[in-house]
Amino acid sequence: SSGAATLAAATTTIQTLLASDASARTINLAGQTLRLGTVGGVLQPATSGGLTIGSSANDGFLTAGTNANVAGELLLINHSANPLVINSAIASNGTAAIALTKSGAGTVNLAGTNRLGAVYVNDGTMNLLSDNSLGAVTVVGGSLVFGSGGSHTLGGTLLINGGTVSINGPVTSGSELQMNTLSGSRSVLYVATNLTASRIRAA
To answer: CA-CA distance, 158 to 195, in Å (whole number)?
Structure first.
């Protein structure tokens, strides 16, 4: 099947979302909340035609945690050549923060205004296209792009343990930026605009 699906309830809770259709799909949140499991995933296999969550920027909320006010982790896994686009705002689960992990060789575009705890990028590309309030950010592979369409605030360390970080929009960290060279890996930082951190160091 193809086309768009629309959430009907104020909050829809599922464990994991699998986008296996060969045709592109859109989930219209219609201002509602889609909540995944305590460790909840959005998965695009290699054959996926692509998935968009939210019909436009900041359409509804995406979170994780099974029940209200339960901390969760959102896994965004894209193994396909088509991007996973999240237009909805990724938000805390009530009073509880959520972490985000990006995996898979494919691209993830975050186009909403997001409020997250810890963020991990394992591989592929993740583009932050709007305003973001994040915790500590760790990049161990792939590419993380802080886009020029918003400003980005980090509450913890920006740690590059491999892979590439591109700063195209202003980034302010309440802690340090640390670049490590691990065996067999290379850490790369591109800065095209303002980067503010308490300290920048390489190890």
So the answer is: 11
